[in-house]
Amino acid sequence: MDLELRHLRVLCAIADSGSVGRAAAALGVTQPAVSSQLHRIERLLGEGLFVRTGAGVELTTYGAEVVSQARDVLLRADALGRRRRDGSPMMTGVLRLGVTNTPVVPTLLDTLREVCPNITVSVCSVYATGDLLRLLEDGELDAALGVDYPGLPVPHSSALAHRAINTVPVFVAIQAGHPLAHRVEVPLDELSEDTWFVASDDGAGWPDAFYDACRAAGFKPANTHEFHILDQLQSMIAMGLGVAAVQPTVRPIDGVLVKPLAGDPLWQRHLLIWRREAVDASVVEVLHHHAVRVYRKLLAQAPHLQKWAASRLGEAVGRNR
User: Fold this and answer.
1) Which CATH architecture has domain 5-78?
2) Domain limits, the chain
3) In contact, 234 and 188? CB cutoff 8 Å
4) What is the rounded distance in angstroms from the CA atom of residue 176 to the CA atom of residue 179?
5) Quick count: other Cβ atoms within 10 Å of Cβ 74?
6) Phi, psi of 307 (to 5 degrees)
7) In angstroms, rounded to a whole number, what is the distance separating the alpha carbons of residues 117 and 215?
8) pTM of the full structure
9) N-term to C-term CA, the chain
10) pLDDT, tens only, 27-65
11) Class assignment of domain 89-167+268-304?
């Protein structure tokens, strides 16, 4: 079997939805058909692209590379010959972009300024993904960068569409002098007596996902503070005032360590969400392509995440022997 564009779309649909079943629904085909195509593609490439998790499927390191290349091919294929009827470029005008707490924003905006000079991006910073969804549904935004959590997919009407940028484990930030500072991975249940800084409700499943993980680990945090201003948060962690769940791209300040949680009990998915009628498909492809690219670069610059990825790759190799 030679790879065709339809096969690449299947891979991207599975990666975006985090589930073979949801990918099948999005593509309008049966789940067995998608599973069969995935098996054929993996046999052709000679290596698995996804691993099963409790919430669906996750990309392997090799799978992430393949899907990234697939997106690039699809972006180029979809752009072939595309012009408006009057012959002008597709990407023009003002794009009203809402953003939540994601590190991709500065570099993404700089990149868009270079690759899409005919688009003026107007940025609105909003903490809660739920608020971004309301602004999108009301027509006050055209697109947004938000989050959701595996098993708690972001809810929206048919007027909106979304695509995954990346799915990453949630890490923990602790004081450098914490009793567990020597551990490569920190068991969540061993933080049961710590004070936690917990970000407020984001309308997409947080902090419920955090408390669900704590319950699964056999405890309820004894003391919590609602807080999400990162620079002040890290300063308080460095003083030993508590610990916090953080994105793996966080760059710790002196006195703070960022470590993976043992068993990866918490995951977060970063999303591009847009109004179908407001954003041209070519603009969606450019936004998504560069958001993925920028985020991948940030992940590569996070040493604690690279150690985690290397350990997971080693475990996968060991299981396949």
Assistant:
1) Orthogonal Bundle (1.10)
2) 5-78, 89-167+268-304, 169-267
3) no
4) 9
5) 17
6) -65, -40
7) 49
8) 0.73
9) 27
10) 888 889 999 999 999 988 888 899 887 777 888 888 888
11) alpha beta
